Amino acid sequence: MGIPSQEAVNEFLALMEEVDEPLKRTFQNIHQGYPTDTLVRFLKARDWNVPKAHKMLMNCLNWRVQNAIDIILEKPIPTDRYRAVRDSQLLGMSGYSREGLPVFAIGVGLSTFDKASVHCYVQSHIQINEFRDRVILPSATKKHGRYIGTCIKVLDMTGLKLSALSQIKLLTIISTIDDLNYPEKTNTYYIVNVPYVFSACWKVVKPLLQERTRRKVQVLAGCGRDELLKIMDYGSLPHFCTREGSGSSHYSESGSDNCFSSDHPFHRELYNYIKQQAAISESVELIKQGSFHVDLPEPAAEGTEIARTIESQLHSLDNLKISDDSD
């Protein structure tokens, strides 16, 4: 394991001076004026081992160039398809913590991922990542007068069922993209509205997670409202945390209140931004042919092991349920 030090950062900075121009350009889109803080993220992700962190960043930069990630915010998903994605991949931004960190909400239990192609879901997910890193976080940094490079995520487990097994492959692809290309972007994961099926899976998955990841995860009681109000105002709470039993059902909330809805201010701002960028680059004609395809990564060893463990646990619970039903 490496040692966290200024020496490691300086060594990494020196290595970055030697990269080719296309990689330097895409690195600028990543660091947004804060290269040292960005290198520290990659160092943390590789336990401060400079050669491993450098290899990880080089792989990330090459992935960005090969998949044209720098222009992904110029590629709007057609409106009807975008609404289908938003209805089935429940993800949005509800506000900010008192420290200025963006609060992202994820409806894990009720996301079905069954209304669009895998590439469409991946494109949308990367666009939200890029919008967060190139627009949301720089704006927060400017507003608070200090670097803000991470966010808070609130995961709603309402509706999580054994049928979630069918979604594990896509979720593993998305989490692998995040792990390899957007490391250390989440300050804390708050998990709320936890059913038994999650508790059973968490018990076997938790030991498989790296220590730095385990430290970031907090499983809260009920909807988590009281704990979350210690770090954010009521107006920034995700809609499923505003009252006990509210859950993330997107049919019970108006579009302006439900941060998963394509009519929520965050998603309107995001979609309008992408359309504006498309108009500026005059690339609108290109996207009429279909969604923007990104090479899908092979899941990392840790992610594969976690996925297998979850599958095994869900199968065990399913078998137990069948056995109970037959008694």
Keyword list:
alpha/beta, 327 residues, 5-stranded mixed β-sheet, 13 helices, 51% helix, 9% strand
What would you note in describing this structure?
A five-stranded mixed sheet has the order 1-2-3-4-5, covered by helices on one side. Helix 6 links the parallel strand 2 and strand 3 (151-156). The model is unreliable at 286-290 and 321-327 (pLDDT under 50). With 327 residues, it is an alpha/beta fold. The protein contains 13 helices and five strands.
Record the SSE blueprint.
Layout: H1 6-16, H2 21-31, H3 35-45, H4 50-66, H5 79-88, E1 91-96, E2 102-107, H6 118-144, E3 151-156, H7 168-181, E4 186-192, H8 196-205, H9 211-214, E5 217-219, H10 225-228, H11 265-281, H12 284-287, H13 301-326
Parallel strand pairs: 2-3, 3-4, 4-5
Antiparallel strand pairs: 1-2
